[in-house]
Each structure stands twice: as structure tokens, then as C-alpha cells.
Design goal:
The protein has 127 residues and is mainly alpha-helical. It has a single domain (29-125), classed as Ubiquitin-activating enzyme E1, inactive adenylation domain, subdomain 1 (FAD/NAD(P)-binding domain, 3-Layer(bba) Sandwich). 46% of the residues lie in helices and 8% in strands.
Length: 127
């Protein structure tokens, strides 16, 4: 499959081929007592095996607009193992209005991914 030209400065086709073909299976290790407490609601919703698969999964987001920033927040809080963000857009004032992680006073003129990484990483330490 040939990917269309996106204007992206890096070659992503190898990444897509490798990432889309990987299915991570749940391990034999049960969740710890701490993880069971943290993810209690999710475990009741989708079960232990699905939570284990989520905790072993790797996700890539291409672009980080308002909707994808919400998705990034939700999957990090759900216990995702690894999130990779590809974004080469420079923040303009109109980008900061709907976006969760862009402060209009400091983000304008910077790369969306670079300015969003720290707020997203802090979500890992809410537990």
C-alpha cells in the first residue's frame, strides 16, 4: 500500500507498516492491587484482559488538534503504555481556543507537539 504525500518532514510509511500490523496480546501476569484500584471502573466495563492489552499497547497520533488532544488525554488516563505524537504544525492564536493543552499566552509560535508533551506527561502522575 502506498501512502499519500502528507507534507510530513519524516518518513512514516515504515512506522505505519510496523505499527498497524502489531497486535499486542495480554500477558499472563495479573494486575497489581494498586492497578486494580486505579482502573476499577474500566475493569468492570471491559475486563482484566482488555485492560492488560491497553497497558501493553502503543498508539501514534498524527496531528494534535482539539479532538486528538482529548483522545490523547483519555487514553493516557486509561493506562496506555506508550503514546507517540507526530505534529509539525506551528501554533496560531486560533489553535489555542479549543485545545486542552495550549495556553494562548505561551503557545503561539511553538510546535503543537512540543508544547503539549509536558501537560500530557503530567497526567501520568495523577494517581
Amino acid at each position: 500500500m502506498k501512502l499519500p504525500e502528507t507534507g510530513c518532514p519524516v518518513e512514516l510509511s515504515a512506522f505505519f507498516k510496523a505499527s498497524l500490523s502489531v497486535l499486542v496480546m495480554a500477558s499472563e501476569n495479573p494486575l497489581s492491587k494498586e492497578e486494580t484500584q486505579i482502573y476499577d471502573r474500566q475493569l468492570r466495563l471491559w475486563g482484566v484482559q482488555s485492560q492488560q492489552r491497553l497497558q501493553q499497547s502503543k498508539v501514534a497520533l498524527i496531528g494534535l488538534n482539539a479532538v486528538l488532544s482529548e483522545i490523547a488525554k483519555n487514553i493516557i488516563l486509561a493506562g496506555l503504555n506508550e503514546l507517540t505524537i507526530f505534529d509539525w504544525v506551528t501554533v496560531k492564536p486560533r489553535h489555542t481556543i479549543p485545545h486542552l493543552f495550549l495556553d494562548p499566552r505561551t503557545a503561539v509560535g511553538q510546535n503543537v507537539r512540543a508544547i503539549s508533551v509536558y501537560p500530557l506527561a503530567t497526567l501520568l502522575y495523577l494517581f
